[in-house]
Amino acid sequence: MSEPRQTAVITGSARGIGKAIAKKLAQTGMNIVISDILHEEALKTAAEIEKSGVGVLAVKTDVASARDAEELIKQAMSAFGSVDILVNNAGITRDNLSIRMSESDWDQVLDINLKGTFLCSQYAAKEMMKKRFGRIVNMASVSGILGTAGQANYASSKAGVIALTKSMARELGGRNITVNAVAPGFILTEMTEKLPDNVKEAYIAQIALKRAGTPDDVAAAVHFLISPAAQYITGTIINVSGGLLI
Questions:
Q1: Are the C-beta atoms of residues 133 and 86 closer than 8 Å to each other?
Q2: How confident is the model at residue 4 (pLDDT cuts 50, 70, 90)?
Q3: 0.85 surpassed by pTM
């Protein structure tokens, strides 16, 4: 008798890095839950992934809302019977110098990037604990390690994600639940593509591999962390930056 399919919930997965992660995990035969505030795009992504023959569900989610985070996990459980993997990818930027940053821009970034990661992890972990298995991967950033001018809110949120990752790894390890994070560097997405060429060139000049990363580079790291090969790895931050952070 074959093992039941695992189910992976990926937040912020309508496009960009989250979409690449969802497609990568679908290739392994997992059921995929596409979670995003951009519901129309989430439905399109779900339709693409469904062609691979796995179960797919699209859920409109504001991860900063406890009600939405709880409902996301409830819908995943109702559709597929388990939540085995959670990838907390949802995140935003609202860049400005610290002295000019509005309180609302600070609050919104911290709410989505950090509070959202906490809430989704909290509800998913409750289900994972019941079956004594789970894999949580959080999206951090090299900005949360180095700090970035003009991104005090974003860097602070990602530093918080790193601390949250380490704390939850200690709390959940006894239930065979690993909690790790991936810290991308300069990755080519719809957001970074809009940057002026001189800004892109300045970033790339600092990267040891002398190229920007791709969403697939990040997805590969996430895939490793949820795989059996990483079953003895928890509380770890994998730097996917091409050597921007050495």
A1: no
A2: confident
A3: yes
Q: Is domain 7-187+215-240 given the CATH code 3.30.200.20 in the classification?
A: no
Domain ranges of the chain: 7-187+215-240
What does the alpha-carbon distance between residue 64 and residue 79 come to, in Å, rounded to a whole number? 23
Q: Are 41 and 12 in contact (CB under 8 A)?
A: no
Q: Is 154 a known active-site residue?
A: yes
Q: Where are the alpha helices (DSSP H) in the chain?
A: 16-26, 39-50, 66-80, 103-110, 116-131, 143-146, 152-172, 190-193, 197-205, 215-226
Sheet with 134-139, edge to edge strand ranges:
56-60, 31-36, 7-11, 85-88, 134-139, 177-184, 237-240
Q: What is the DSSP string of 209-236?
A: TSS-B-HHHHHHHHHHHHSGGGTT--S-
- Measured in whole angstroms, the distance separating CA 32 from the mean position of its chain's CA atoms is 14
Which residue is catalytic, options 123, 154, 203, 232? 154
Are 54 and 28 spatial neighbours (Cβ–Cβ below 8 Å)? Answer: no
Residue for token pair 């859920």: 59
| pLDDT tens readout for residues 136-195 | 999 999 999 999 889 999 999 999 999 999 999 999 999 999 999 999 999 998 777 777
Instruction: Give, as one character, the DSSP assignment of residue 52.
Output: T
Reduced to 3 states, what is the DSSP secondary structure of residue 62?
coil
Largest Cα span, the chain: 61
Q: From residue 220, how far is each of 21, 174, 240 by CA, in Å?
A: 8, 26, 10
